Amino acid sequence: MFDNHDIDDIFRGEIIGREIILLDSTSSTNDVANEIGSKEKTPEGTVIIADEQKSGRGRFGRNWISPPGVNLYFTVILKPTLFPENISIITLAAAVAVASSIREYTGLGAEIKWPNDILIHGRKIGGILVEMKSMGKHIDFINVGIGLNVNMQLDALPEDIRPFTTSLQAESKTDIDRCSLLNAILNKLEQIYKMVLNGDKQTLINEWIRLNCTIGKKVSVQISNRIMRGVADSVNDNGELRIRLESGKIETVNSGEIKILADTK
Ligand code: BTN
Predict the structure, then answer these.
(1) Which atom of ligand 1 is nearest to the CA of 59?
(2) What is the mean pLDDT of the chain?
(3) How remote is the CA of residue 73 from the centroid of ligand 1, in Å?
C-alpha cells in the first residue's frame, strides 16, 4: 500500500502512533484530522497518512502539491494541556523532528526557517501546517500536518516555484524509503513531545537553534499589512521569534512569514 510497506510497518509509540490511518488518497490529511480530532475514540497521537492528497493545503491558503507514490503527507493529532497562545512550541517540536530525522536518515543538511519551513541548500523541501481547535483557554486538539518532498521529480512542480523548491531525491540522487523516513520522524516527534509535556522546553529550543537558518539573519516579516525589518535575534520558550529592529527595539512575533534578507555577519 505504501511502497512495499503496509500499516503494520508504521511506528507505534506510547503516544504517537497509538492509532494509524493509512489512506490511498484523500483531500487533505489535515481535513481528516479536523473531522475526527474531537471524537472521544480518537486517541491523542493518531497519525493520518495519505499516499496522495487531492487538495493538500499549505499556510496562508496555499496549495500543497501532493502527487501519489512519491512524497510524505501526514498529520499527527495532539491533545496537550497547553494554553492556545503557547502552541508555537508544537511547531518548533515538529520542525526539529523533521529536520533532525532528515539529517540522520539522509546525511543532507536540512535546516529550519522559522516557523514552519524545512530547507535544504536554501530551497524548500518540507512544510508544517499546525491547526488547532480550542474553546476559550482549552485546546481540544492540535493537528500537526507535515508535507515532505521525498522522491518527487522537480519537473512535476509548477515552473514558478521550481527555483525555490527541492526534494530529497533531487538532493541525494537516491530514492528514499518513505516508510523508514516517516518512522524516523514519528519516533523523534514522540521523544521531543514527551520532553515538552515534561516541561523540558530548553532542550528543544537548543536543538532548534542548532538546526535553524534564521537566527542572526536580516529578515522582514509581514504582519497583516505592516512590514517589519530587523535581525532575527532569538526564539523565546514559547517558540516565538524575537526580532531586533533598527531602533534597537525587540518585537516578538508568533506567526507570519519571514523573508531572509541577508547574513548580518
Ligand atoms: C506550508 O509550508 O505551507 C505547510 C505545508 C503543509 C503540507 C502538509 S501535507 C500533510 C498535511 N495536509 C495538508 O493538506 N497539509 C499538510
Answers:
(1) 3
(2) 94
(3) 7
